[in-house]
């Protein structure tokens, strides 16, 4: 009888010990899961997803200082693409130049006025000419304020009988302004000037 009681007592201690170990393991597992959940939540809070058609594109949040060089280069590239992309259609030209002039100060407006007065845009329309720009590289110096930049690109002037390839180099400064729908990067091109605009070659179509 005493042996049976001893066996019951040892079995009870064994079950109690096993139960305590199991409870401790469950507690530690819950703590680990909570920690990982908070960690994942913190990582996801730095991301947003943008819907483009039927695709979700992941974007990451970051301070402006971290991305200022990327944004500055893209602003310069966007401005030059809008300013120099022309087709023989008055509305297309006006739309592109309107977008470009939102991104720059009076120095760009002055160049636009000079080209308009010399009949450049009228010649594009009457001559069925298209003009495309390929921005090869944009150098920015974020150590100075306003930010200095230099843009290297290639212009393709497509005429009915030929294609003229030109080298284009411009420079200027970027000043911080408020972001808007017309100016999403929050920069304004200032003191913009053309350093080089020369023919490289002409191809017959």
Report the span from N to C terminus: 111 Å
Number of helices: 5
Q: Which architecture of the largest domain would the CATH scheme give at its second level? A: Roll
Shape estimate: elongated
- Radius of gyration from the alpha-carbon trace, in angstroms: 32 Å
Derived from helix and strand composition plus strand pairing, the structural class reads: alpha+beta
- pLDDT < 50 runs, ≥5 residues: none
What is the helix content? 40-55%
- Largest sheet, if any? 4 strands, antiparallel
Give the strand line-up of the largest sheet.
3-4-5-6
- Secondary-structure element pattern, one letter each: HEEHHHHEEEE
Number of strands: 6
Give the class-level CATH name of the largest domain: Alpha Beta
CATH H-level name of the largest domain... which superfamily? VirB8 protein
- The total domain count is 2
What would you note in describing this structure?
By secondary structure, the protein is α+β, with helices and mostly antiparallel strands. The chain folds into 2 domains: about 1-60, no CATH class; about 65-205, Roll (Nuclear Transport Factor 2, Chain: A), CATH 3.10.450.230. The protein is about 45% helix and about 35% strand. The chain contains 5 helices and 6 strands, in the order αββααααββββ. The protein has helices at about 1-45, 65-85, 90-100, 105-115, 120-125, and strands at about 45-50, 55-60, 130-140, 145-160, 160-175, 185-205. Strands 3-4-5-6 form a 4-stranded antiparallel beta sheet, covered by helices on one side. Helix 2 runs antiparallel to helix 3 (about 90-100). The longest helix has about 45 residues, at about 1-45. The chain is elongated and about 110 Å long. The mean pLDDT is about 85.
């Amino acid at each position: 009888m005493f042996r049976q009681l001893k066996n019951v007592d040892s079995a009870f201690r064994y079950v109690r010990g096993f139960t305590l170990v199991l409870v401790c393991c469950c507690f530690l597992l819950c703590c680990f899961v909570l920690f990982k959940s908070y960690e994942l939540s913190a990582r996801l809070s730095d991301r947003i997803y943008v819907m483009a058609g039927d695709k979700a594109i992941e974007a990451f949040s970051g301070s402006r200082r971290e991305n200022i060089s990327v944004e500055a280069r893209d602003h310069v590239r966007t401005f030059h693409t809008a300013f120099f992309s022309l087709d023989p259609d008055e509305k297309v030209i006006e739309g592109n130049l309107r977008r470009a002039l939102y991104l720059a100060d009076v120095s760009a407006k002055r160049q636009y006025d000079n080209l308009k007065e010399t009949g450049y845009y009228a010649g594009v329309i009457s001559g069925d000419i298209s003009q495309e720009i390929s921005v090869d590289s944009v150098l920015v110096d974020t150590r100075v304020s306003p930010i200095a930049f230099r843009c290297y690109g290639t212009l393709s002037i497509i005429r009915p009988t030929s294609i003229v390839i030109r080298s284009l180099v411009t420079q200027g400064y970027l000043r911080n302004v408020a972001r808007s729908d017309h100016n999403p990067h929050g920069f304004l091109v200032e003191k913009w000037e053309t350093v080089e605009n020369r023919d490289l070659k002409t191809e017959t179509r």
